[in-house]
Write a structure and sequence with these properties.
Helix content is 43%, strand content 13%. It has 15 helices and eleven strands. The structure holds pyridoxal-5'-phosphate. Pyridoxal-5'-phosphate (PLP) binds at residues 87, 146-148, 179, 181, 232, 236, 261, 263-264, 290, 302.
Length: 475
């Protein structure tokens, strides 16, 4: 008969834990020696990897060999200090420790009465985020799996508050630069694409409040019901911060909900000296944060704060006779504020990271990332043939290559080639985007591992490759 025991003896658990920990720590200790963009041309590999469910168990070491030697290297190295692509992640080690604890003890933290003290830790962290965003005590929040689901929770709250059952009349507004997760979240929330207006941006890629006002008026005139504006506190393309005070004032005047997608940029609000860059954020009706970006937590943790916490609760609260008795208003009960019931313990990752580092170190790290981006932008802008399209508002800038006589198509091709050649050198990874009618290269500094050395390498490699590309194009 097959053994039905799934528990390991303590000494086995300890040995397996040591084996895994050794791999992870060895990996992290040499993270900057690995190419920052691994070989992800892996269709043949992936086909060869398809396998039936194993009937018999196997040893741990060979599985770790395959993971750490073959599969993990064939990834974008999003944990690398040279990862300046898209919006960087990072993954601070306390997050990994928290996951081990959370999964190891496997307690039920979606429901307050089942783990009150653990849920309180999560409530505490949400409260810290609330204070750092300067939201009022009436605000409530939710840890989500990411910024996309945070945007979704905000849109559902706005819909619940502003539209009730009349979904089809409702119209919402974003900009041509808004992250695509917002349109997706709108659709999931029942706001279909024909009720979503993409407002044009100005030359700095910020939403034009005058055009927003006109679009709202036009929809009113057409008998529709404008209910929500989503602005960006740092767009993914160029890092643009929309004019939050003007948009907020317009929303207040018109009775619209103002959601700020701060998945990239809101964490800079932790630093008092950087708050002017995000003026208007504390007055928003809701804000998306993405701790797995700007708080350096491992992937799988987003967050939303809603000023009128009752709106978040109204959109999600449910009861059932088999559930433990709710404890009333005093204590935060996660499943009353979000779609999940059973779930992981996202709050522990953020809690442990802040407890181990302290908030002051986080502020220092965030301020350093911005300073590094300013330094990189200043030096890249000074290079021949570089035109800075979007200087850093937070920690992201965008630029292109240009030389006399070059067509737009030639400039786009040269800028694309620049990204490819810089990234192929293996030390820094940069990506591009289409914005303002041309292709832009962009550098985003947000990994906690990125320090001055990577910025120096980035500038050096851009300078070398840009010079070579333009010299060849002009020859
Ligand atoms: C990354 C990002 C999102 C989506 O967040 P996920 O965590 O990837 O789901 C939304 N908005 C902006 C501005 C982002 O940068």
């Amino acid at each position: 008969m097959t053994d039905a025991t799934l528990e390991f003896p303590p000494e086995t658990m300890r040995r397996m834990g040591d084996q895994v920990m050794r791999r992870v720590v060895d990996h992290l200790a040499r993270i900057d020696e690995q190419p920052v963009r691994g070989d992800v041309d892996a269709t043949a590999l992936c086909r060869a990897m398809r396998e039936p469910a194993p009937e018999e168990g196997s040893a741990l070491e060979p599985l770790l060999d395959a993971l750490f030697d073959e599969w993990i290297p064939r990834t974008f190295n999003t944990a690398s200090p040279g990862y300046l692509a898209y919006i960087p992640g990072g993954g601070v080690f306390p997050g990994a420790l928290a996951d081990l604890i959370a999964s190891g003890v496997n307690r039920y933290t979606g429901v307050w009465p089942t783990a009150p003290a653990l849920v309180q830790l999560e409530a505490n962290v949400l409260d810290w985020l609330r204070e750092w965003m300067q939201f009022p005590a009436t605000a409530r929040g939710l840890f989500t799996t990411g910024g996309s689901m945070a945007n979704f929770a905000a849109i559902v709250s706005a819909r619940e508050r502003k539209l009730g059952a009349e979904l089809r009349r409702g119209t919402m507004y974003l900009s041509t630069q808004t992250h695509h997760s917002v349109g997706k979240a709108a659709r999931l929330a029942g706001i279909l694409p024909d009720r979503v207006r993409a407002i044009e941006v100005d030359s700095t890629f910020r939403m034009r409040a005058d055009l927003l006002s006109q679009a709202i008026a036009a929809d009113h005139a057409a008998g529709l019901q404008p209910f929500l504006v989503v602005s960006s506190a740092g767009t993914t393309n160029t890092g643009a911060v929309d004019p939050l005070p003007a948009i907020g004032a317009l929303c207040a005047r018109e009775g619209l909900w103002h959601h700020v997608d701060g998945a990239y940029g809101a964490s800079f609000h932790l630093c008092p000296e950087l708050r002017p860059l995000l003026a208007g954020l504390p007055q928003a009706d809701s804000v998306t944060l993405d701790p797995h970006k700007g708080l350096f937590i491992p992937y799988g943790t987003g967050a939303v704060l809603v000023r009128d916490g009752e709106a978040l609760r109204a959109a999600h609260a449910e009861t059932a006779s088999y559930m433990p008795e709710n404890q009333g208003e005093e204590f935060y009960d996660p499943h009353q504020y979000g779609p999940d019931l059973s779930r992981g313990f996202p709050g522990l990752r953020v809690w442990l990271a802040f407890k181990l580092y302290g908030a002051a170190r986080y502020r220092a790290a965030l301020a350093e990332k911005r300073a590094l981006a300013l330094d990189a932008a200043r030096r890249v802008a000074a290079l021949p043939h570089v035109v800075m399209d979007a200087p850093p508002q937070l920690s992201l800038f965008a630029f292109h290559l240009e030389w006399p006589g070059a067509t737009l198509a030639e400039q786009d091709a040269a800028t694309r080639e620049l990204l490819e050649r810089v990234t192929r050198r293996g030390k820094v990874f940069i990506t591009g985007c289409q914005a303002g009618g041309r292709f832009l290269a962009r550098v985003c500094v947000l990994s906690f591992r990125t320090r001055q050395a990577q910025i120096d390498t980035c500038v050096e490699h851009i300078a070398g490759e840009a010079g070579a590309i333009v010299a060849r194009a002009r020859a």
